[in-house]
Specification:
By secondary structure, the chain is mainly alpha-helical. It folds into three domains: about 45 residues, no CATH class; about 25 residues; about 180 residues, no CATH class. It is built from eleven helices and two strands. Helix 3 packs antiparallel against helix 4 and helix 9 packs across helix 10. The protein starts with a strand and ends in an 8-residue tail after the last helix. It binds zinc ion. The site of zinc ion has 6 residues, from loops.
């Protein structure tokens, strides 16, 4: 962690594994963040909340800190670049269009319809899957308990732990960088857009046809689609047959 050298504190951080390229920038930021902090020798460690004035945690201050961080993050996202990336994805046109509409928040989700006075009642604006929340794009695609389980299954398949960002744009930009190299990026773009396209399809089937979708089947459907898209777009070369593919770990093609 660090030690005192001639009266000065020197940080010495040891990482358990070699850092990946995408992690280096975060490490630089972190080092910069802790450089100005000097521990005091001879006193006991204690917890202190730095989001307020008196060092004591309050939910209100925590809310403000998160809100500001999110606004900053959203403002800094190069949406134009993200959208141009979408048009370059190697995926079927229908998935590309859905991704573009989703990232621009142009899907007819209940909150968007409500804004145009098309849907106004509380009940009809609820998410059809959990019946708990207002149906927004961020909710349906990321935070609905049912959708979260689908993403959990996808990350398990990828062998990756991922802290889900709040909004779909950040989710997309971070997700497609979870592998190494251009080819892995193409595969991740396909996986992201395929999952989102299917989530929207299941949502529509549930809302308009009353169909109930199953999480396990949903994850299998994502895997099967990627298998068939790979035949067209060649994200990776594989000798695996379909049943081996369905039980394999995707990390092999991401590293
Ligand atoms: Zn929901």
């Amino acid at each position: 962690m660090g030690k005192w050298e001639d009266g000065c504190w020197v940080w010495k951080l040891n990482w358990r594994r070699e850092l990946m390229e995408r992690e280096r920038a975060a490490v630089d930021d972190f080092l910069q963040f802790i450089t100005n902090f000097v521990p005091s020798a001879g006193s006991l460690d204690s917890w202190s909340w730095s989001g307020g004035k008196d060092g004591r945690y309050s939910t209100k201050e925590a809310y403000e800190v998160i809100r500001e961080t999110r606004n900053e993050a959203t403002d800094q996202l190069p949406l134009k670049e993200v959208l141009s990336k979408v048009w370059g994805m190697a995926v079927p046109h229908k998935a590309m269009v859905l991704a573009w509409r989703l990232l621009r928040n142009r899907l007819p989700t209940c909150d968007n319809l409500r804004r145009r006075n098309i849907l106004v009642g509380e009940t009809e604006c609820c998410c059809n899957a959990c019946i708990l929340n207002l149906e927004t794009a961020n909710h349906i695609f990321l935070h609905c308990p049912k959708t979260e389980k689908v993403w959990d299954g996808i990350f398990q398949w990828m062998g990756i732990c991922f802290i889900r960002p709040h909004c779909v744009v950040s989710h997309f930009t971070q997700f497609v960088q979870l592998g190494r190299g251009k080819r892995a990026e193409k595969l991740l773009e396909a996986l992201w857009s395929c999952t989102c396209w299917l989530i929207w399809k299941w949502r529509n089937e549930s809302r308009w046809e009353g169909k109930n979708w199953d999480i396990k089947d949903a994850i299998m459907e994502v895997k099967a689609r990627i298998w068939s898209w790979n035949k067209i777009f060649n994200y990776f070369e594989s000798e695996l047959n379909f049943s081996s593919w369905m039980s394999c770990n995707l990390s092999v093609w991401l590293l």
